[in-house]
Design brief:
With 679 residues, this protein is an alpha/beta fold. The chain contains 25 helices and 20 strands. It is elongated, with a radius of gyration of 30 Å.
């Protein structure tokens, strides 16, 4: 493993953070933390922790010894000083005199010892850092170290590899007892450069940030040198594999939670594949590997104890595979329920069971699907799953992979201090839903994406204006795919990408359109057909592809169409626009009629006079002038006397999406225009 420490950069951190009032101790703590956190083979997504012991003024201005330690859940790769809460060191060290300390009391000790009560919760391993005497302490879950320790004879292997450079700590659940055990073992081995926590990870330490970091890199490099990288024999990979975009909606539709009033709560599912994943999935020993448990305990809160392993679709087709997958999923859930019941019976205080759905599904020869409340969470799970695969393969190259005991896995999964890391994961109204918005680069498209994002949805924006689309996606926090919605094949390809990215779709806002003008008796056939391509057939392209995915998921869905006042109240010279919009309004209702039995709802929004790509400043000025009005007067000439904004249209789309018993409806958003009212 490469040592990335560059003294000039370290010095720059000291200078830059010094200007912000931070000490050199903290600046170097941030620098080396980021070096560690930037290497996935060392740390992933809030894993690991770091600390530095330093002096800081208390409320009275007196210098007090504190432990600056990574706050729980913070990522080391991007940590800032605020992610290193200051904890008074003396009460932490004094707790070492105790023989035992309940978790709730340990957390209370952490919180009451904070210099700032508003700081994030210190790491659950705060006491371990405090009990060690060194100024800087680093902790990672290095893949190579896990490959050595996750063995029946892991201790012997570590002694062979590291000699006296490290001391070994038998597996103990994180918390007070681990801190006591690690401290005692260090006291018996004060010359060691680090501690190996068997089946957990590695600690290194030093009086400088550079020394502690260098020791981490050196020891992990030693571990890497022990892995022979022998190729494991695999079965042949079938050539008759289902298309990912066909498989993904089936898997996603089955893996849902039950909501209120019979509703379902889906997850976002993302797909990963590589030669390493595929070969792992096809290895002769894969059935044993997947049931062996996580490579480090804290993975379990995101990944569950095991993935679900299933066969890939074969010659019998997707229908037969769907039935088989359903049976495999049921078997997995029964297995999880048995695991819970066995281990919950051993607990003094009974736990409430978590859901029994897998978070990782490994499809033989194809790849893996990972699940989360949003795409970020799903990608975290996927990263952990890939790490698990890498460590297991490395462990098998050394000997035989062995995780912690099932009871220990359960203790971590149901440990309140670990579950607290996910406490901010309360589901918003549309959490786990995938929303696709066409015309995403426009004003209404952006506002609609923002509105759905605010409800917790994962948003994918489509448009032809690539540069503008990417900017809007960045602003919104969504995803962008450049797509010509008039091209059926391009639409098909785009939705396949969405299924690979998010697992499927739940809500589609068919919003793209262009304003076509001309006296209807004079407009060319070409111009009229062109308008129908964008303002009608594009909506049909989007909707017809969407319902196929929704049917495969089997959990319903929502189609939302942007129609126009022109659909119900034609205006002069707007026939080329109004005619296809009228057809689109009928299209919306036809989908409601034909797909209601599948739980797919279809509604439309009838908006008028909205500043957008269609309603340009030039058009507004022209139409206002023809009516003897100023542009602002024209835009607000409705019963409410207020201009309709893109955000008002967006809210209408969201409201329709959240109305579970509404379909075949057209919601007007025009500030009140009786002449254009639906009849």
């Amino acid at each position: 493993m490469e040592n990335l420490w560059i003294q000039s950069k370290a010095d720059q951190f000291v200078e830059d953070y010094g200007k912000q009032g931070e000490s050199g101790d903290i600046a170097l703590r941030v620098y080396s933390s980021r070096l560690l956190g930037g290497v996935p083979e060392l740390v992933l997504h809030g894993g690991g922790n770091v600390s530095v012991k330093t002096l800081e003024p208390n409320l009275l201005g007196d210098l007090e010894e504190v432990l600056r330690i990574k706050g729980s859940g913070w990522d080391m790769e991007s940590i800032e000083p605020d992610g290193l809460p200051s904890v008074k060191l003396k009460p932490l060290r004094d707790s070492a005199k105790l023989q035992s300390l309940a978790d709730i009391d340990m957390v209370n000790l952490h919180r009451t010892s904070l210099m700032n009560s508003g700081a994030p919760d210190p790491s659950v391993e705060t006491l371990l850092h405090a009990f060690l005497p060194h100024k800087y302490v680093d902790h990672t879950h290095a893949n190579a170290v896990l490959a050595l320790t996750d063995q029946p004879d892991g201790a012997e292997i570590c002694k062979e590899v590291f000699g006296d450079r490290v001391a070994l700590v038998p597996y103990v659940m994180p918390g007070f007892q681990l801190a006591k055990s690690a401290s005692q073992i260090f006291q018996e081995n004060t010359d060691c450069e680090g501690l190996i926590l068997l089946k957990h990870g590695i600690f290194t330490f030093g009086e400088t940030a550079e020394v502690s970091y260098r020791r981490m890199i050196d020891l992990v490099t030693l571990a890497e040198s022990r892995i022979p990288h022998v190729t494991v024999a695999n079965r042949e990979v079938s050539s008759e594999l289902g298309v990912i975009s066909d498989v993904a909606p089936i898997i996603r539709g089955k893996c849902v939670l039950s909501g209120v009033a019979g509703d379902v709560l889906p997850f976002i599912s993302t797909f990963r594949t590589s030669e390493a994943i595929r070969s792992y999935s096809m290895a002769e020993e894969v059935a044993r590997w997947v049931m062996s448990g996580p490579v480090t305990p804290d993975h379990v809160i995101r990944t569950k104890p095991w993935p679900l392993l299933v066969e890939a679709p074969g010659v019998d087709g997707l229908s037969a595979w769907k039935d088989d997958f359903g049976k495999d999923l049921t078997a997995y859930q029964k297995l999880y329920e048995g695991y819970f019941n066995r281990n919950n019976g051993k607990q003094e205080s009974k736990r409430t069971p978590l859901d029994s759905l897998p978070r990782v599904i490994l499809v033989k020869g194809l790849g893996l699907f990972a699940f989360g409340k949003d795409l970020k969470a799903a990608n975290i799970v996927a990263d952990l799953a890939e790490t698990n695969i890498a460590v297991v393969r490395h462990a098998e190259e050394i000997g035989k992979f062995q995780s912690i005991r099932e009871a220990d896995i359960f203790d971590i999964e149901y440990w309140p201090l670990e579950q607290a890391k996910l406490s901010g994961s309360r589901r918003a109204s549309l959490s786990g839903r995938v929303v696709v918005v066409t015309g995403g680069a426009g004003a209404i498209g952006k506002a609609t994406a923002n509105a759905f994002k605010a409800e917790g949805a994962e948003v994918v924006l489509l448009d032809m204006s690539e540069a503008r689309l990417k900017q809007v996606a960045r602003d919104v926090g969504g995803h962008s795919i450049c797509c010509d919605v008039t091209d059926r094949e391009e639409v098909n390809s785009t939705f396949r990408k969405i299924c690979e990215l998010c697992g499927g779709i739940d809500i589609v806002v068919s919003n793209a359109g262009v304003a076509s003008q001309g006296r209807i008796g004079e407009v060319s056939d070409e111009a009229l057909r062109s308008s129908f391509d964008v303002n009608f057939f594009a909506h049909q392209n989007i909707a017809s592809v969407s319902v196929k995915i929704m049917e495969a998921q089997g959990i319903g869905g929502v189609l939302l169409f942007n129609v126009s006042k022109q659909a119900v109240n034609p205006g002069p010279d707007f026939g080329p626009y109004g005619l296809p919009k009228s057809a689109t309004m009928f299209l919306s209702r036809q989908y409601a009629v034909d797909y209601g039995r599948d739980g797919i709802r279809s509604n439309a929004v009838n908006a008028d006079r909205v500043r957008s790509g269609i309603m340009t400043a030039e058009m507004i000025s022209s139409r206002a002038q023809s009516r003897g009005l100023e542009p602002d007067q024209y835009m607000s000439s409705n019963l409410l006397g207020k201009e309709v904004e893109a955000e008002n249209v967006a809210k209408a789309f969201v409201d329709l999406a959240l109305s579970p018993r509404t379909t075949g409806a057209v919601l007007t958003v025009d500030g009140g225009n009786i002449a254009a009212a639906l009849r």
